[in-house]
Specification:
The complex is a heterotrimer of chains A (258), B (266) and C (263).
Chain A: E1 2-10, E2 16-25, E3 30-34, H1 41-47, E4 56-61, E5 64-65, H2 71-80, E6 81-84, H3 96-101, H4 110-114, H5 120-132, H6 148-162, E7 166-170, H7 178-195, E8 198-202, H8 206-212, E9 215-220, E10 223-229, H9 235-242
Parallel strand pairs in A: 3-8, 3-9, 6-7, 7-8
Antiparallel strand pairs in A: 1-2, 1-4, 4-5, 9-10
Helix pairs in contact in A: 5-6, 6-7
Chain B: H1 13-36, H2 41-44, H3 47-60, H4 68-100, H5 108-122, H6 126-137, H7 141-165, H8 169-177, H9 182-216, H10 225-233, H11 237-265
Helix pairs in contact in B: 3-11, 4-5, 4-7, 4-9, 4-11, 5-7, 6-7, 7-9, 8-9, 9-11, 10-11
Chain C: H1 12-35, H2 40-57, H3 65-97, H4 105-120, H5 123-134, H6 138-161, H7 167-174, H8 179-213, H9 222-230, H10 234-262
Helix pairs in contact in C: 3-4, 3-6, 3-8, 3-10, 4-6, 5-6, 6-8, 7-8, 8-10, 9-10
The chains are: A alpha/beta (258), B mainly alpha (266), C mainly alpha (263).
Chain lengths: 258, 266, 263
C-alpha cells in the first residue's frame, strides 16, 4: 500500500515539482496519472522509487516512510518497485536474456553478477517472464534488433523478473504507434490482474487512460486536482484537469483508427 | 520442482573453434612475452635503485629556477621549430591529400601510391627521421624542422584525404551542372568545405609536433632536448625537474589554446 | 554593427580579417624559419648533405639483420607488456574520470588533471628519468610506455563514456543494482568494442615509441641504433631503420584489420 502524506518537492532552483500531495493507493490497483507536460506526473511516479526525492512530507510504502531511507534500504526498496520507461532503457548491445535477467541484480551479489552466475531459478524466471509477454523466441537476440513494441515487452519481462510489489510506468507508450501501444497496455493490465501487482502508469493520452485505468489521478502544477474511479471520468473532467479544451493529439486513437 | 529453462544457445562450431584458436594464440603470446623478456630484476630492486630514488626524485621535484632563463630560450626555439615544421607539412601535405582522395583524383593507382607513401612516412618514428637529418645537415635545429615536417606530412596527408573524401559531392555536381570548369569547382565547391577541417587538423598536429620537438634535441636536432642531455650527463636532476616543469606547462597551454581555437573554427 | 559595404562577393570585413590572419601566419613563419635556419635557402644549401647521407645509408648492410631481430622482438614485447598493464589499470581510472558516472567534481577533476599532466611528458623524457633511477634495461622503458599509454587510453575512454546512452543506467539503478552492477551491465557493453579498439591503437603507438627508447638506454632496438650511429656505420643504421619500418607497417596493418572488424 502506498500513502502520500502532505508530500511536496521543491527543486533547488525554486520550482515546485509537487505540492501537498495526499494519496492512498491500495495493493493491486491499476492507477493512471494524467496531466499536461510539467504537471508533475513524472515527479510523482519517480518519488515512489526515489529516483527523485521529495523535500517534505511522508511517503509510506507498506507503512514505512521511504524518504529517510539510506543507500542499503533504498536498494532493497528498488528491488520491490519495478520501473518501465518511455525509451525502454534496454542495453542495446546486450541480448534479450541479459537484459531481462538484469532485473535480478538487486537480489544478486556483486561478485556473482560480474560473472553471470545467476541461480538457475532466476534464469527460469526470466524465461517464463518472456513467455508471459509472448516474446520468448527472441531470447538470445540483441536488443537493438527488436522493434519498439518488442523492446517495451522485454522491459516488462525485465520488471516481472524482479517480482516486484509495485510497477511504475513512466509514459510507457509515448514512443509507440497506436496498435502497439494498446498491446503494451494490455500486457500491463494482464500482469496487474494476474499477479495483483499495484501498477501506476503515466499517460498523456486521455482515451487510453479511460480505457485501461481502474482509477485516474489528475495533476496540474504539481497538485492533485482529480482522484476518482475511471467510470466517473469524461472528456469534461479532462478539460478541467488540463485547464483547456481537448485537442486531437491528446488522443491516441484505437487500433482501427488510422 | 521442474524449472522451465530457456532453450540452449545455438553456437556454430566454426565460431567455437575460432574462439578457441584466438584464446590459445593470445595465451601463447603472453606466455612467450613474459618468459623471454629479459628484465634485470636484480638491478631494478637493488641498492643502487634506492640510492638513485633518494637522489633523483627529491631533486626532480625541487626545480632549479636559476636555469629558468636558458631553458626558456631553448623552449622558445623548440616552439619555433615546431611551428616551422608543422606549417611546412600543412602546405606540402595538401597535394598528397588530394592525390589520395578517391573522389578528387580518379586514378586508383595514384590513390594507392599516395596512400602508401603517406602510410610509409607515418611508420618512421620522428626521432629516427631526425637522426637521418642530423647526419645529413649537422646537429642544428634545421634537422629538427625537417624531421617534424616530413613526419607530419604523413599524418596530415592522411587526415586531409579523409576530409576531402567526406565532402558533400552534391555541391560539386551542382557547380559542374552550372558549367563551372575544374578550377572553379575546386575553389568554389571543394575548398570552402575543407578549409575549417584542414586548419583544425593542422593545429592539432602542431600540438603533437611541439611535444616531439622537445625531445629531438637529445640527438642534436635543436630545441630544449639539447639541454636535457647536458643536464642528465651532469646528473643535475633539479635542472631536469625545471625542464620537465617548463615542458608540462608549455604543452598544457598549447593544448588548451589549440582546443579553444579549433572549437571556434569547426 | 554597421551595414556591411557591398563591394564584392565577400564582405570587406571578412576580407580584411582573412588578410590579417594570413599575413600574421606567413609573417610568423618567415621569422621562425629564419630563426631556426630552415628557410628555402637553407634547404638548397643543405641539398649536398641530403645526397651524401643517402649514398652513405644505401645500400643497407643486410648481413647485420639477424642481430637486429632479437632486439626487435624485445621492442615488441615491451610494447605488449606496457599496453596490457595500461589497459587493465586504466579501467578504474577512466571510470572515475567520467563526469556522467561520477558527477562529483572532487572525484573526476583531480583524476583527469593528473592523467593530463602525465600525457604532456614526452615518453623519452620519462624513459630518461627512469633509466636514471632503475639503470639501463627494459624495465625503465616499460615503465615509461606504461605511464604514457595510461594517460592516453584513459583520455580516449572517458570521452567515450561521456557520450554513451544514459538510459539503461537509470533502468538498472531503478531495479536495485549497485554502482558496480550498473557499470558492468549498462556501461561496459556499450564501450567494450571501443575499449578494445583503442587498446590496439595504443599498442601501435607504443611499438613506434619503444623503437627509440633504447636510444637512451631503456631497452629495445634503439640501443643498436645508438651504437651503430656512434660508429658512423650507416649501412647498418639503414638496415635497422628499414627493419623498424617494416615491423611498424606490419603491426599497423594487422591492428587496423582487427579494429575494423570489432567496431
Amino acid at each position: 500500500m502506498i500513502e502520500f502524506k502532505d508530500v511536496s518537492l521543491v527543486y533547488p532552483n525554486g520550482t515546485q515539482g509537487l505540492k501537498n500531495v495526499n494519496l492512498k493507493i491500495n495493493q493491486g490497483e491499476f492507477v493512471v496519472i494524467v496531466g499536461l507536460s510539467g504537471a508533475g506526473k513524472s515527479t510523482l511516479i519517480r518519488s515512489m522509487n526515489r529516483l527523485v526525492t521529495p523535500t517534505s512530507g511522508q511517503l509510506l510504502i507498506d507503512d514505512d516512510d521511504i524518504l529517510p531511507y539510506n543507500q542499503r534500504k533504498l536498494r532493497k526498496l528498488r528491488t520491490e518497485v519495478g520501473m518501465i520507461f518511455q525509451n525502454y532503457n534496454l542495453v542495446k548491445r546486450s541480448t534479450v536474456m541479459k537484459n531481462v535477467i538484469s532485473g535480478r541484480l538487486g537480489h544478486t551479489g556483486t561478485f556473482a553478477s560480474l560473472f553471470n552466475l545467476f541461480p538457475k531459478e532466476a534464469v527460469s524466471l526470466a524465461y517464463r517472464s518472456l513467455e508471459r509477454v509472448n516474446i520468448a523466441e527472441k531470447v538470445y537476440m540483441r536488443a537493438d534488433q527488436l522493434s519498439g513494441g518488442q523492446q517495451q515487452r522485454v522491459a516488462i519481462a525485465r520488471v516481472l523478473t524482479q517480482q516486484p510489489k509495485i510497477i511504475l510506468a513512466d509514459e510507457p507508450v509515448a514512443s509507440l504507434d497506436p496498435p502497439t501501444s494498446h498491446q503494451v497496455m494490455t500486457y500491463l493490465r494482464k500482469v496487474n490482474k494476474e499477479d495483483n501487482i499495484t501498477t501506476i502508469v503515466n499517460l498523456h493520452f486521455i482515451d487510453m487512460a479511460m480505457e485501461y485505468a481502474d482509477r485516474i489521478i489528475g495533476m496540474r502544477a504539481g497538485e492533485v486536482v482529480f482522484d476518482g474511479p475511471a467510470s466517473e471520468v469524461s472528456e469534461q473532467t479532462f478539460e478541467e484537469i488540463y485547464g483547456r479544451k481537448i485537442r486531437e493529439d491528446d488522443l491516441v486513437g484505437g487500433p482501427d483508427d488510422e | 520442482m521442474d524449472l522451465v529453462m530457456p532453450p540452449k544457445k545455438k553456437r556454430s562450431t566454426a565460431k567455437i573453434i575460432r574462439n578457441i584458436i584466438i584464446a590459445i594464440a593470445l595465451i601463447a603470446l603472453y606466455v612467450w612475452t613474459f618468459t623471454t623478456i629479459d628484465v634485470r630484476w636484480d638491478r631494478v630492486f637493488s641498492e643502487r635503485t634506492i640510492e638513485n630514488f633518494g637522489r633523483v626524485i627529491p631533486q626532480l621535484f625541487s626545480p632549479d629556477w636559476a636555469a629558468f632563463q636558458k631553458i626558456m630560450v631553448l623552449m622558445w626555439q623548440t616552439l619555433q621549430m615546431a611551428y616551422t615544421g608543422t606549417l611546412l607539412a600543412a602546405i606540402l601535405a595538401i597535394p598528397f591529400g588530394f592525390f589520395a582522395a578517391s573522389n578528387m583524383v580518379k586514378s586508383k593507382v595514384l590513390n594507392n601510391i599516395s596512400k602508401g607513401f603517406l602510410n610509409g612516412i607515418r611508420a618512421f618514428p620522428e626521432l629516427v627521421l631526425a637522426l637521418m637529418f642530423v647526419a645529413a645537415v649537422g646537429p642544428r635545429p634545421f634537422a629538427g624542422v625537417l624531421a617534424i615536417a616530413i613526419g607530419s606530412i604523413g599524418m596530415l596527408g592522411k587526415l586531409y584525404s579523409e576530409v576531402i573524401e567526406s565532402i558533400d559531392m552534391h555541391v560539386v555536381e551542382a557547380l559542374q551542372a552550372n558549367g563551372a570548369n575544374k578550377i572553379q569547382v575546386l575553389f568554389y565547391g571543394v575548398i570552402p568545405q575543407i578549409i575549417p577541417e584542414f586548419l583544425s587538423y593542422a593545429i592539432y598536429r602542431f600540438e603533437i609536433d611541439v611535444r616531439a620537438s622537445t625531445i629531438l634535441g637529445i640527438i642534436g636536432a635543436g630545441g630544449i632536448g639539447t639541454l636535457i642531455t647536458i643536464s642528465i650527463s651532469n646528473r643535475k636532476w633539479d635542472e631536469v625537474g625545471m625542464i620537465l616543469l617548463v615542458i608540462i606547462v608549455v604543452v598544457t597551454i598549447i593544448d588548451y589554446l589549440s582546443a579553444a581555437i579549433r572549437k571556434r573554427i569547426v | 554593427m554597421s551595414k556591411p559595404e557591398i563591394n564584392g562577393v565577400v564582405s570587406t570585413n571578412a576580407k580584411v580579417r582573412m588578410t590579417i590572419i594570413l599575413v600574421a601566419i606567413v609573417g610568423v613563419y618567415a621569422y621562425t624559419s629564419w630563426a631556426t635556419r630552415s628557410t628555402p635557402m637553407d634547404i638548397i644549401r643543405g641539398w649536398g648533405g641530403f645526397q651524401r647521407i643517402l649514398t652513405d645509408l644505401f645500400p643497407p648492410n643486410w648481413a647485420y639483420a639477424p642481430q637486429v631481430w632479437e632486439k626487435l622482438v624485445e621492442t615488441i614485447q615491451m610494447a605488449i607488456i606496457a599496453t596490457t598493464f595500461a589497459a587493465i589499470i586504466s579501467v578504474p581510472i577512466f571510470l572515475l574520470s567520467a563526469a556522467n558516472l561520477f558527477p562529483n567534481a572532487w572525484i573526476h577533476q583531480p583524476v583527469r588533471f593528473i592523467m593530463n599532466v602525465l600525457r604532456t611528458i614526452p615518453d623519452i623524457l620519462l624513459a630518461i628519468i627512469f633509466v636514471g633511477i632503475f639503470g639501463v634495461g627494459v624495465f625503465p622503458g616499460i615503465m615509461a610506455l606504461f605511464i604514457f599509454s595510461l594517460g592516453l587510453l584513459a583520455k580516449l575512454m572517458y570521452e567515450t563514456i561521456e557520450s554513451i546512452d544514459m538510459n539503461p543506467l537509470d533502468a538498472i539503478r531503478a531495479s536495485g543494482g549497485n554502482t558496480i552492477q550498473v557499470i558492468w551491465y549498462a556501461v561496459m557493453p556499450q564501450v567494450l568494442p571501443q575499449f578494445v579498439s583503442f587498446s590496439l591503437y595504443v599498442f601501435e603507438v607504443n611499438v613506434r615509441a619503444s623503437t627509440v627508447l633504447g636510444f637512451v638506454g631503456a631497452g629495445g632496438i634503439g640501443l643498436l641504433l645508438q651504437q651503430q650511429i656512434s660508429f658512423f656505420n650507416f649501412p647498418r643504421v639503414m638496415t635497422i631503420i628499414i627493419i623498424i619500418f617494416i615491423a611498424v607497417v606490419i603491426i599497423d596493418y594487422i591492428s587496423n584489420k582487427i579494429r575494423e572488424r570489432i567496431v
